[in-house]
Amino acid sequence: MTAIAVNQFAQCITCHAWSPDHSMVAFCPNNNEVHIYRLSQDKWEKVHVLEKFLHFVLKQHDQIVSGIDWSPRSNRIVTASHDRNSYVWNLEGSEWVPTLVILRLNRAALCVQWSPKENKFAVGSGAKTVCVCYYEQENNWWVSKLIRKRHDSSVTSVAWHPNNILLATTSADGKCRIFSTFIKGVDTKDSRTGPSSDSKFGEQIVQLDLSFSWAFGVKWSPSGNTLAYVGHNSMIYFVDEIGPSPLAQNVAFRDLPLRDVLFVSERMVIGVGFDCNPMVFAADERGIWSFIRFLGERKTISSGSKYGSQFSEAFGKLYGQSKHGLSNDAVEPSRSRGGIHDNCINCILPLSQSGISTVMRFSTSGLDGKVVIWDLENQADLSEYL
């Protein structure tokens, strides 16, 4: 088993983030609060609840916090909520003090992520809008520039390219899009390279129409040469050579859909979602991506084998098939995937130092209220992809 730590923090966790030294974890227990725990003598103790400091400063989050990101360099936390607000938190002494963010949204904020240089962050929303926020020193607040009229539905996920300019988004309209976020006075001209070299803020670089269902969980590879995102149709998409003629692949699997993805190396991706156990995808020497196995399973599943899913078993029961019976296409019933998470995994984060291209440890959180730390160090069959 690759899980080295399992912590039951709440009944349900919406999202989580780690401090720069990974000694503290912040998460939303499916409400309007953000709890921060610190590891002390092999035990986790609650040290902060961010919403408490908002009573006399700003209007506190009054709905579910849907996104958290903790910047590794500047040690700032950004939160986004269904109440259409976002705050940037700075540690002053022993208290976290919020700074106002002007989002100008009329629908829920759904996701948030710091840019690599931490001079901007992006917020995806239910208003079909992306807010790219930057700090104004003279007013002591964060203002936003909006990318509007590009999405046909809610923006479900955002991901920054390593160049700090390109931003990938996924949407419930089934599409993945890449935009330029160059802001004069915030970004430098030498940061505009590749397909974004001459682009202006909000300019769409490419639109990927690979999925015919909701799209979630977009991520860039460490080099920024490959993009991966997932659809609610139990497919994962890989795109190379971002530009006018991108090269795209898709991998279909017969298990439940994914919600988020993480590149642990240039050739290996971990996907998490409704099957409650991380799934491993990898590219061979030719660059062809395929499903390898669940992390809870030791034996690699060959490409020719058939494996079932929780949906397959439920579907069989609905039509009167026995628990271990076979359907017309001989689909096997679902098997236990390892039993670490008991509900949907909705967040996956790396646990590695900034600048390290290979991620040996990562964490997941889900609707079961657990934060699980996974280790790939002793996975011999995966070492060739790391």
UniProtKB/TrEMBL annotation:
Keywords for this protein: Actin-binding, Cytoplasm, Cytoskeleton, Repeat, WD repeat
Pfam families assigned to the protein according to its UniProt record, in alphabetical order: WD40
Top-rank lineage group of the source organism: Eukaryota
Subcellular localization, as worded in the UniProt entry: Cytoplasm, Cytoskeleton
Gene3D superfamilies reported in the protein's UniProt record: YVTN repeat-like/Quinoprotein amine dehydrogenase
One annotated GO molecular function: actin filament binding
GO BP: any one term: Arp2/3 complex-mediated actin nucleation
GO cellular component terms attached to this protein's record: Arp2/3 protein complex
InterPro entries: ARPC1, WD40/YVTN_repeat-like_dom_sf, WD40_repeat_CS, WD40_repeat_dom_sf, WD40_rpt
WD repeat feature ranges: 58-99, 148-180
Entry function: Functions as component of the Arp2/3 complex which is involved in regulation of actin polymerization and together with an activating nucleation-promoting factor (NPF) mediates the formation of branched actin networks.
Entry's family note: Belongs to the WD repeat ARPC1 family.
Known partners and oligomeric status: Component of the Arp2/3 complex composed of ARP2, ARP3, ARPC1/p41-ARC, ARPC2/p34-ARC, ARPC3/p21-ARC, ARPC4/p20-ARC and ARPC5/p16-ARC.
Name of the protein in question: Actin-related protein 2/3 complex subunit
Organism: Lithocarpus litseifolius
